[in-house]
Design goal:
By secondary structure, the protein is mainly β. The chain has no helices and 11 strands. It is globular.
């Protein structure tokens, strides 16, 4: 069974940090671009970041640039999202997703391109 499992979510104060992990089981991630998406209550899902399968290309939405960092460790079959300087508006359920993208040095933040999705992990930023 092909699965993605997110972990690392929780409650954090404004200005704090968290690191999310996205681990794959049943398949290897090294051929997949990985994206992080989030959905806040009452809002549509939005892209946060993506990383190419080769790891050399990353992309971020403007609202998280300079605060979030995506990385991958293909040997561990895991992708990470380091989130610093968290703000209340970052509160959402965060999902990772895998895209079997033929262009291995690029990634896309178009969610309809993604083949596999995790179940999500809640991030709450509040004092």
């Amino acid at each position: 069974q092909l699965r993605l499992v997110e972990s690392g979510g929780g409650l954090v104060q404004p200005g704090g940090s968290l690191r999310l992990s996205c681990a794959a089981s049943g398949f290897t991630l090294d051929r997949y671009a990985i994206g992080w998406f989030r959905q806040a209550p009452g809002k549509e899902r939005e892209a946060v970041s993506c990383i190419s399968s080769l790891g050399g290309f990353t992309n971020y939405v403007d609202s998280v640039k300079g605060r979030f960092t995506i990385s991958r460790d293909n040997a561990k079959n895991t992708v990470y999202l380091q989130m610093n300087g968290l703000k209340p508006e970052d509160t959402a359920v965060y999902y990772c997703a895998a895209h079997l993208f033929q262009i291995r040095f690029r990634c896309t933040v178009v969610d309809s391109n993604y083949n596999y999705w995790g179940q999500g992990t809640q991030i709450t930023v509040s004092s």
